[in-house]
Amino acid sequence: MAWNRRVWMTLAALVGFLSVAFGAFAAHGVAEPYARGLLETGSRYAFMHAMATVACAVFIELGAVRARHAPALFLPGVVIFSGSLFAMAFGAPRWLGAVTPLGGLLFLGGWAVLAWSAAAIDRPRA
């Protein structure tokens, strides 16, 4: 499989769909406050990084070709960060929360790559 914009955009759309689904479930299907908070946080970060992945496609079109690397950090970050929160909300052991910050580090890396790639926007091409 080629990791191109079509793949990233498809995955971003699926992450966006799941983030809305988990957020709605948190709002309407979960009574326990701790679990609801985990679902809301996971959903918020998943949605935010789905939209960041969509923004990467725009960056690429504007000439920031390095932006193609950011989704490779954003989307695994969603799996680790949001996925661990979702799992704990559904009863996984709390020690799983120890891996959550690894997803956060992937998010930070993705944003750093996106900032690095922005340097190429509006730069005259040789």
Separation of the first and last Cα atoms: 32 Å
Share in helix? over 70%
Mean pLDDT: 93
Number of strands: 0
Low-confidence spans: none
Judged by helices, strands and strand pairing, the structural class is mainly alpha
Query: What's the gyration radius in Å?
Result: 16 Å
β-strand amount: under 5%
In DSSP terms, counting alpha (H) and pi (I) runs of 4 or more, how many helices?
4
Biggest sheet, open or closed, and with what strands and sense? Answer: none
The shape, in one word, is: elongated
Description:
The protein has 126 residues and is mainly alpha-helical. The chain has one domain (5-118). The chain has 4 helices and no strands. The protein has helices at 5-29, 33-61, 71-89, 100-118. The longest helix has 29 residues, at 33-61. The mean pLDDT is 93.
Features of this protein?
mainly alpha, elongated, 126 residues, 4 helices
Write the layout of secondary structure elements.
Layout lengths: L4 H25 L3 H29 L9 H19 L10 H19 L8
Helix pairs in contact: 1-2, 1-3, 2-3, 3-4
In short:
The protein is mainly α and 126 residues long. It is 73% helix and 0% strand.
